[in-house]
Amino acid sequence: MISNPDDDEVTEWRKIVDFAKRHRMVPDGKRIEKTRMWDGDLRIALLDGGHFNAKPPLDPAQRVDVPDYVDQLHPLLSHLKNSAATLDVSPEQAPRALRIMHTVLTEAERRGYDTGWAEDTSEGVEIRDGNFRLHITMTEERKQRDLLPTPEELANKKIYTWQRIQPETKWVHSGKLKIQLSTSGARWDRPAWWADRKRWRVEDKLSELVAEINRRVQAERDRIVEEERARLQRQRDREAAMANARARFQQDRRIDALNRQLKNWQKAASIRAYCTDVEGARSVEHDTEQADAQARWMEWCRAYADHIDPAKTGTRAPDEIEPTPSDLKPYMRRFSPYGT
């Protein structure tokens, strides 16, 4: 435990820990953890087990090695007129950049992928798996340096003999290569990249690059399979919903028909009961003409009751009809009856 170290001390201790990790000074099965405590102390501990976020060791069979010399470059590279400009590297780094890109392309094809230049060459080469596209670009990192004007630049300027020549700050090639993998689409809006550093060079990271290509391709394949599975499931659910909607539609038509028949049956019974009460009242026996009129009315009422009474006329279920999409819409809930 380092008590309340200042920022410079923390930086120094982190360098020491990184040095120990880099030079494999940590015993097998152990890990070093450094933690800044709430009170400002720095805790450095040697603990059992690897770090939870540590990458598993790379299988030697999966390593991708860059050859020191290539007899015949990949066809996408062999016909480049200005490889340094195309790859955005300095002429000094162009041979090395070509060997790296050659290795990536041949390894991708060995694994069954198609390759080609992107439609916009500034997006680099493409690794293709069906309609899925991954872009790989090679660049050389730049750094700022104060440089004196070249003789050609001085020739284009009016400089007096007594005038002091001032250096200019320019962005120049650093000699450090960087390879980047990017994929179009919202799911892959974050590119992955590897660059020359003190502990490694781009050549040392090609196995990770190829592994990342495989990971993204497999993720895309899994996504396509899952989308197709979900599409088929939605289709099955919709077909089931359509079948259920059709059944409920026909059922509701039967219920409506039954309710109408019951209504007419009850109405006919009420008409007959009404006629019986009227006929039993004998309120118009003294008036023959009115009695005849009443008798004719009662006859019509009883005939109408027989006409609307399903028990007299016979009854049956309504014929099934082909429902329209608007007929089915009330039964479909989250699905549309008009199509997928």
Indicate the multimeric state. Answer: single chain
Main sheet?
5 strands, antiparallel
Q: Record the strand order, biggest sheet.
A: 3-4-5-6-7
Per DSSP, the total helix count is 9
State the separation between the terminal residues, measured CA to CA.
Answer: 65 Å
pLDDT averaged residue by residue:
85
**What number of structural domains do the residues give?**
3
Q: Structural class, from helix and strand content?
A: alpha+beta
Low-confidence stretches: none
- Overall shape: it is elongated
Concise overview:
This protein is α+β, with helices and mostly antiparallel strands and 340 residues long. It has helices at residues 7-22, 75-78, 83-87, 94-110, 151-155, 206-281, 288-308, 310-313, 325-332, and strands at residues 30-36, 42-48, 114-117, 125-129, 132-147, 168-183, 192-195.
How does this model look, in words?
This protein is of the alpha+beta class. It has 3 domains: 7-48, no CATH class; 73-196, no CATH class; 228-332. It has 9 helices and 7 strands. The strands form 2 sheets. A 5-stranded antiparallel beta sheet has the order 3-4-5-6-7, covered by helices on one side. It has a two-stranded antiparallel ribbon with strand order 1-2. Strand 3 (114-117) and strand 4 form a beta hairpin. Helix 6 (206-281) packs antiparallel against helix 7 and helix 6 (206-281) packs across helix 9.
